[in-house]
Amino acid sequence: MDHLSVYSMFIKAHITNLVKLLDPKTILYVCMVVLVTLWIYWLFCVPFVWIKYLDDVSYSKVSKREDFCRNNNKRDAINRIRKAKKNSSNEMPPPFPNGWYAILESSKVRPGEAKFVACLGEKLVVYRTQKHKVFILDAYCPHLGANLGVGGRVVGDNIECPFHQWSFRGEDGSCNNIPYSTSIPRGTNVKKWISQEVNDFIFIWYHAESTDPWELPVTMEIQEKKTSYHGRNEFYINCHIQEIPENGADMAHFSAIHSESFLAGSLAPSKSLLGLFGCHKWNARWLPGTGEEKHVAEITLTHSLQIIRKVHCFLMNVFVKQIGPSFVYLKMNSSTFGQIQVLQTITPIEPLLQKVVHRFYGPRWLGPLLKVLICAESVMFERDINMWNHKVFRRNPILAKEDSSIKQFRMWYSQFYTSSSKQFSEVSNDGW
């Protein structure tokens, strides 16, 4: 018998023994162990993401109108509502208040990558160098108008135009190289925007008066990765930007739309039987900042979930800082679960189209609870979106005496508008 035959018999014998060992029970056991391991890994280590686009929230009620409307799709419903809002724009403050805006999450731009971003009535290129430094410039090349954010190449600290390879310096936006020319025309530059990357976001300073920016607070636990990122949500909303933070000063709305259990959903919670599984209890207070902190407002909240009479669980003290017109830092403290941190950013894509992102952070061992919290917060926020998408802005609302914090909020928020702030009539009609 040759060596090949001996080797073949040896392999067959081992395969036969392996098959005998892997009986159906063993295979089932191995599969269960693998699935449980993957499930535990997902619970504790995989970020949870909840994204809803413009037609995913609140428009189902108006998408099947039977009166005077033959085309019943959501787009028509959305466009009708947006048109009504646009027609009432003379009631609204300027669409883009002054302040810091998070226009991208840090993870969205890799080293050596450039991204095109349209927001705040501006067209921007955001790029990151190989040394991880971020620059923001106007997107269109002054030569023949190519978009630096679509195919632009990052070379050192510069962004190179994809059309003719003109190179623009990130530090000041000036052109420092035209490969086929020995001279650079005077004034060849693009606008360089003040930016800062903190707390896993890339911020841009937007101000109609070219005023120096205030300091963005840095959350060291997040900045230094001392707390774990557990997930995010993302929403698109048809409203003026001011209407979103105004909710924090609207004390009456908490019990009106946030009392039913989050298990009851967002569209019609009062009609859901799941709303019987407890109710949320809230107590809130809103206060404006003063002096050097006048651009900051504070909200304190207490929350509990009432299961049956006098039985409360998920007790939390919530401390909220509204920093400028669009950035919110939220800290939840619980004697049972410890500390959870949430960052909220609002980015005006258009005058009446806002992108809102929440990012959630906490200890790694809180992974399962954070997933529940992200779902609960997303449902609660969608209840607000149901209101924002369909309401109009009242410049001079009739307020009850208990609504005094809304009046305070509007006085505080007015500091983010100046005489040079763009009016609705001055803003590009893209998407309107």
List the helices and strands and how they pair.
Layout: H1 3-21, H2 24-45, E1 48-52, H3 74-87, E2 99-105, E3 114-119, E4 122-128, E5 134-138, E6 153-155, E7 158-160, E8 167-169, E9 175-177, E10 195-198, E11 201-206, H4 220-223, E12 228-237, H5 243-246, H6 252-257, E13 279-288, E14 296-308, E15 311-323, E16 327-334, E17 338-350, E18 353-362, H7 367-388, H8 404-413
Parallel strand pairs: 1-12
Antiparallel strand pairs: 2-11, 3-4, 4-5, 6-7, 7-8, 8-9, 10-11, 12-18, 13-14, 14-15, 15-16, 16-17, 17-18
Task: Give a short summary of the structure.
With 432 residues, the chain is of the alpha+beta class. Helix content is 23%, strand content 30%.
Helicity, as a percent range: 10-25%
**Morphology call:** globular
- By DSSP (H or I, 4+ residues per run), the number of helices equals 8
What sequence of helices (H) and strands (E) makes up the elements? HHEHEEEEEEEEEEHEHHEEEEEEHH
Low-confidence segments, given as residue ranges, are 63-71
Query: What is the radius of gyration computed over CA atoms, rounded to a whole number of angstroms?
Result: 27 Å
Mean pLDDT: 88
Q: What does the largest sheet look like?
A: 8 strands, mixed
Q: Strand order, biggest sheet?
A: 1-12-18-17-16-15-14-13
* Termini gap: 85 Å
Report the portion of residues in β strands. Answer: 25-35%
- Find the structural class using helix and strand composition: alpha+beta
β-strand number:
18
